[in-house]
Amino acid sequence: MSRVNLAIIGGGLVGASLALALQAGAKARGWKIVLIEPFAPGDSFQPSYDARSSALSYGTRQIYQQLGVWSQIAQRGEPILQIQVSDRGRFGATRLAAHDEGVPALGYVVENAWLGQCLWQALDTEVVSWRCPAEVTSLQPIEHGYRLRLDDDTSLDCDLAVLADGGRSGLREQLGIHVRRRPYAQSALIANITPGEQHAGQAFERFTEQGPMALLPLPENRCALVWTRQGMDAQRLAEIDERQFLRELQDAFGYRLGALRQVGARHLYPLALVEAQEQVRPHLVVLGNAAHSLHPIAGQGFNLSLRDVQALAEALLGGPAQPGDLATLQAYQQRQRLDQTLTVGFSDQVTRLFGSRQPLLANARNLGLLGLDLLPPAKRWFARQAMGLGTRPARGGL
């Protein structure tokens, strides 16, 4: 029976980021970390027109700079230089610009496969090992830790188990950790688009009566589309032919980027706000989408999870010699409570406000967008939320 200090269940972007954030301090302490992941990471990055992407906030760039991987990530990161927010059929609109906020970019759009490759290559194999492909089938509390049983009939003991296995975590359910689920009665249609004109680093948030949409800049003048529609209508859009799909998208989005020329593979994801009712127990942490899964339209989910990662790593490395102490984990949760509450609330309220068809709310959001341009403090607050800096003190012009 082998034992490690930390077992991170889920070697995706959140789990790998935590291993990277811990590894220097873990090496100094003699800790051993294992990443347990059912899907083997690729040996090399393979560009794809249809690659899924994440919007990384400016605050996320700062974290990855501290971890020493940003320069590599940025090689295939498309800067967001301007965000245009508009309400279809109404005058309300606002624009956020990087130069107005004193930053090189408001955020960056990065293909998930490239981001993962950068993280995995930066891991120190003397500290971080892989069990892959492997899956944890059960977690059993033991004295001073947990016993993990894997699908290859082996077991592993750890001082601290971190659940980073996604929003549909079966282990979370197995442990009796309840979730609060608020369905949006919507699905997100995800696809990559080629516009007729250069996107020039522009991102668009567009709100329509049928649901919000986002179009984000990607390398090779592609754009990542997130189009939120109600269930049956989303399914219809996923199944119609490419020409009809582009026609309907053009009608909803307009000609801000000229005629839309190409759409890649379309994927549907049912949407709900999901929050775990417990994020820490003795020797256990729930992290990433397993802890909170947000609506994608505001682009806050992964960025919040990375701030959780940073706070957890700092708490563990500042805590006892062996990780898993409940007081240390509770201090981490207390530190992140405000950030999580504000970010989840911001994402949820924006989604509900701009997804409503009620005339009074529609008029209110229209006035709100107009007001952002007329009230610089309000616009600055909104920009800081978008950049992932909303719960951090302003420093150095930020």
TrEMBL record:
<keyword id="KW-0285">Flavoprotein</keyword>
<dbReference type="InterPro" id="IPR036188">
    <property type="entry name" value="FAD/NAD-bd_sf"/>
</dbReference>
<comment type="similarity">
    <text>Belongs to the UbiH/COQ6 family.</text>
</comment>
<dbReference type="GO" id="GO:0006744">
    <property type="term" value="P:ubiquinone biosynthetic process"/>
</dbReference>
<protein>
    <submittedName>
        <fullName>2-octaprenyl-6-methoxyphenyl hydroxylase</fullName>
    </submittedName>
</protein>
<keyword id="KW-0503">Monooxygenase</keyword>
<keyword id="KW-0274">FAD</keyword>
<feature type="domain" description="FAD-binding">
    <location>
        <begin position="5"/>
        <end position="335"/>
    </location>
</feature>
<comment type="pathway">
    <text>Cofactor biosynthesis; ubiquinone biosynthesis.</text>
</comment>
<dbReference type="InterPro" id="IPR051205">
    <property type="entry name" value="UbiH/COQ6_monooxygenase"/>
</dbReference>
<dbReference type="GO" id="GO:0071949">
    <property type="term" value="F:FAD binding"/>
</dbReference>
<keyword id="KW-0560">Oxidoreductase</keyword>
<dbReference type="Pfam" id="PF01494">
    <property type="entry name" value="FAD_binding_3"/>
</dbReference>
<dbReference type="InterPro" id="IPR011295">
    <property type="entry name" value="UbiH"/>
</dbReference>
<dbReference type="InterPro" id="IPR002938">
    <property type="entry name" value="FAD-bd"/>
</dbReference>
<dbReference type="InterPro" id="IPR010971">
    <property type="entry name" value="UbiH/COQ6"/>
</dbReference>
<dbReference type="GO" id="GO:0008681">
    <property type="term" value="F:2-octaprenyl-6-methoxyphenol hydroxylase activity"/>
</dbReference>
